[in-house]
Amino acid sequence: MGLLFFLSACAVKEERSQDKESEGIIIDTPYLLEEGSIITSGENVTIGAINYSLSKVSTIAGVNNTKLAIIYFKVTNKTKQEIIPNEFWFRYVKVTQNNEDPLPIGALPYENREDNNGQLIKQANQGLKKDTTVDVAVAYILDGTADLNVIFMNTEYKELAKNSYSVKE
Predict the structure, then answer these.
(1) Sign of the CA dihedral 40, 160, 96, 47?
(2) Per the database record, which ranges form the DUF5067 domain (predicted)?
(3) Which of the residues in the chain have pLDDT under 70?
(4) Which residues pair with 88 in a beta bridge?
(5) pLDDT tens, 31-45?
(6) Is 72 within 8 Å of 58 (Cβ atoms)?
């Protein structure tokens, strides 16, 4: 009888512990965009209160004999909190070439990690305070010399606009 009481007491304590832990969960509502909150205009896209302005696309050598497309853009955070620019970019922008499959993210060679491209890629993955603008970049592994397509999607992940860039040398 004593063993049964001990086991049930442990179970109650564990449940209470789990209840306390779940009280600390916070849902980050700025990520839940409303329909129509993504607007495109040429090479600019506004995702909620975050503005992305594409400036150029260039190609460089990547690791393991790959060729990378580097997409450069400015990000302005007009939200009420700090954001990470690439979180919204990767959620609502798709980059493709020959087909509709998204291109994989590329890695810079070790010797390029601290150059301008490396710094811009790092900035895209770091916190951006509210009311701040920063230059950033993202690298994709190219699949041949077909044009690069940057596709802006809405909250239902349907295409809003597409810009094409030549990646031939």
Answers:
(1) positive
(2) 28-153
(3) 1-35, 169
(4) none
(5) 556 667 788 888 888
(6) yes
Q: Concatenated DSSP letters for 51-108?
A: EEEEEEEEEEE-GGG-EEEEEEEEEEE-SSS-B-HHHHHHHHEEEESSSSSPPPBP--
Angle, vertex CA 47, rays to CA 106 and CA 35, nearest 5: 125
pTM for this predicted structure: 0.77
pLDDT at 114: 77
C-alpha closest to that of 52 among 30, 70, 34, 74: 74
Q: Where are the domains of the chain?
A: 38-159
Task: Tell how far CA 24 is from the center of its chain.
Answer: 25
What residues contact 76, with CB distance under 8 A and at least 6 apart? Answer: 50, 51, 53, 132, 133
Question: In the block, which residue shows the tokens 């909190």?
Answer: 81
